[in-house]
Structures are given as structure tokens and as C-alpha cells.
Amino acid sequence: MRLLQPDQRIPSNLKPREWWREKSADLYFFGSVVLRTAFDDKFHDNGVIHRHLAEFLDTGKRPSRKKLVVMFRGSYKTTWLLAFCVWMFVWSIVKLSPVSIVYNTATRANAENFSDDFRHIIRNCAFLRWIFPEIPADPDTSFRKFTTWKIEHKSAKFHVASLDTKQVSRHYTVIINDDLVNDDNAFSEVERETVKRKFKFQKSILTRYKKKSIGLEIDTGTPYHPLDLMAELINSRGRYDKFIVPYAIPELPGQEVDLFLQKGIITFPEMFCWDDFREIYEDQGTSIFATQYELRIIDEGDRLCKPAWIRKWRFPPDNYQRLLMVDPGGGEKDRHDPWGFLVCDVSSTGQIFIHYAKKLWFTPRLGLEHAYSIYQEYKPDEVFFDKERLSTTAGDLIESRLPLFNFSVWDHKNKPAEKRIYRLKQYYETGKILHPPDSKELDDELLNYPSKSDHLLVCLAAVLDVMNPPKTKISRPEDENVAPGFEEELQKLSSYYGEKRENDDLFF
What we know:
This protein has helices at 17-23, 27-34, 48-57, 77-95, 108-124, 126-131, 139-142, 189-202, 229-235, 274-292, 364-378, 392-401, 417-422, 424-429, 440-447, 455-466, 486-507; strands at residues 66-71, 99-105, 145-146, 150-153, 156-162, 174-178, 216-221, 241-245, 248-249, 265-266, 311-312, 320-327, 339-347, 352-360, 382-386, 408-410, 433-435. By secondary structure, it is of the alpha/beta class. It has 3 domains: 17-245, P-loop containing nucleotide triphosphate hydrolases (Rossmann fold, 3-Layer(aba) Sandwich); 249-297, no CATH class; 307-466, DNA-packaging terminase, C-terminal nuclease domain (Nucleotidyltransferase, domain 5), CATH 3.30.420. The strands form 3 sheets. It has an 8-stranded mixed sheet with strand order 3-4-5-2-6-7-1-8, sandwiched between helices. A 7-stranded mixed sheet has the order 11-17-14-13-12-15-16, with helices on both faces. Strands 9-10 form a two-stranded antiparallel sheet. Helix 12 (392-401) links the parallel strand 15 (382-386) and strand 16 (408-410).
């Protein structure tokens, strides 16, 4: 099949027009074959995910009238909403079947961009006009309205709007809410509630007649925050027909997706590979990746810690028990779990001040050497390794290479990690765990739990089992690394020379 560029004439060897019109009744064919001739980039990389999306949007194939589409960032969901709008608009003109569509989005700029693409297709897609001669060649003068905000011809009406648009005296048979949530309105409680309120009020412009199957609502987007509108719709048990596609899905039911072990099936392999998503994960962090690519929305009842509960310490305690906790892992990032290292002080009041929390990939030898370097730097009172994950090889290495590295093991007695970690919730809620000023890795792991990445939380949960807060009246021995002040130095010198004079008197 030969595809046409916008400025090409229609070749004589094409199949008859009626064949193309019949094929264009299928939304996926319409977008992936017809509309791609209007662009150099859009609709050129389509796959199974988009075929399923097209069938989901088509009410002839999927008769539901209230649809929710949530897909990961970069999945071209808005591109296919464009195909859907043009498809409905064109067939309304051809069949003289009235339709009124409004595309509603968060910002004015997004609405204008969508309208620009819509008008570009109508103006420049010569192939579309050849298949459907009912579409005038000069829409700027032939259409009843052909502006940025309103495009109308015969029985078809297409408008764009944003959250700033006053939806007064407007009524439509199809409403599309796309990307109402963005990075400007998702991270403030006030803004989140404003978006939810406008979303509910704007539903009144949709004309619904269930007896005649009139009234189609399509809500699409990607969550940005666990409490935003899209997260609420994903978790809703309403009458939505849902199409939710994360970046990857399990190979078999019940299995897990693992980004670093490359376990699972990427849902858009036409454009992405595992390395693309690993780079996104490393650039944006656990929290953003979990929300926008894994589409993993944590229920508030299951949340281990709320952002407001994370407290940072400014000054460490004077009297403390210092612990180094090590959760051994593997040496290869793409094949093994990381090592977890955590250093904390336990004050006399039972508060936990975290100094160091890192996840790193090491071989057993390098992992133990790194633990020993932390031991030398922070000088903990006690060192604990996870008994189940400390291999015999690692234990032998400590004895042979690091004979002065004394440590103990913590035994969680087969208690599930989930139960051990959830004990931390009451400590965070009451402000008894304090993070260092820079603790992004620990913050992300905490706010996104439950997840597979829990190695720092495993170490922190073990602190609750082994900590022994010091007595209030017992002072801690002076740290040798701390340089004495002038007064302490003077006092030591005075004491030294006083003792020398006394000794001189005794022996001479």
C-alpha cells in the first residue's frame, strides 16, 4: 500500500474510493493509515496498544458511554483522541448525523495546540478529502466556523475549551476531558480540590439520554499525585469502563514486573525499550516513576507515611546509641537487589536520627568493604547484618579480610517484611523518626511503599528490634574525631602540668 504526502496527487492505482470509505469506518485504520498522511511524525508509530485503544473508544465496538483512559506518559493517548475527534466529525458530515464534541483540557495552550492539529488535518490531508469529498477543500471559507476554539460544518460541531473556559449555555453530546491534571495543579491541596470541583461542574454541559444512547464522556490523563483527580478516578468504583495501561505488564497473571531484571512485557515496544524506562526512573526518581509510568496509586489506608509526617533534624542528640544496619544484596543492578545501608542515632527519649541511608549494588567483597568504610567514618556502637541475607561467603570474607570488623545479626524470625515495616507508621506519625536534610532515596521509598524497593525500610524497621536507648544521665564518651575547643585544650594542659609538678615533688 502506497501512502500519500499532503501535497501529492491521488495516484490512479489506488483501490476504489468506496473501499477506502468502508475501511475508514474502523478508527484504527482511519488514524494509522489515513491521518498519518497529514503528518511527518504523528500516527507513524502505532502498535497493539493503540489498536486496543481505538476499539475501546469506538462506541460501535464498545458501547459504554462513560470511559476512563489512563496511560503512562509518552504513550500517544492524546494523539489518538485527536484521531477519534476527527473520525467522529468526518462521519457526522458524511452521514448527516448530528454530533457536538468538546475537547476540554487543563490549559489554554494545550487546547489551542489540539485545535491546531485538528485544523491542520482538515486543511492539508489531501487523502482524507479524496476519500471523503464531502469535506470542502477550503474549510476557512466553506465551514460555518473554522476558528481556534470552534470548528463547525453541516451537522458536525467541534469545540475546544480549558479549565478557564466558562461553560455557560453550552451543550454537547460528546465531552472529552484530557490531561486536566498537570504538574501545576497536582501538588497543592487547594489546586487539587479546584480541579475536582470544576470537573464535576462541567459534566452538566453533557447531554445524556440513556434511552437513545446519547451522551459520551471520555476522561483521560495520567496521575501526578496519589490524591489528584486521575488517581481518584482510577480508584473509583463508579460506572466507568476503564482502559488503564502502565508502561509494562506481567508476562503471566500473578507475576511481577521488574524494571531492572527486565521481567514483564513493555506495552509500547514500537517506541520504548527497557533502557528508556531505566533512564526515566533514574532521572525522575521512584515517586514520579511509580505514579506516572507504573500507574500505581497507593490507597490512603495502606499508606505507610504521609508527606507531612517526614521531619528533618537540624541538630543530632548529645546522648545517643549509634547503629549501622546492613541489608546485603547483589552485585549487578539489572539482576540483583541492592545493598541497603543505614546509620542512625537513637536518643535517650527513643527518637531515631538518621544520618546515612543509601542503596548500592556491590559484590559481597565490595559490599562488606563499603560497610567497613561506613563503620570507620561513623563509628557506630553496634553493627547489624540481616541474618537471612548474609551469606556464608560474606561471613567468611569478614573473618579473613576484616578481622577487626565486629558485627551482630538481626533475626526477624520469619516475620513478613510487610508487618515489620508497617510498625514504622506510628513512629513517623508521632515524629519519632527524623531524616537527614538530604534523604531523597529514603523519602521516595517511604512515600511509595508498598513496593518492591524496600531495602532501606527493612533496615529501619530492624532498628526498632535492636535499639537500646541510652540512659539520660549517662554522658557519651567524647568522639576522638572532634577537635577540642580552646577551653578544653587549656584545661587539659593545666591538668597535665599540675600532675607533672606533683610527680616532680614526689621523686625529687
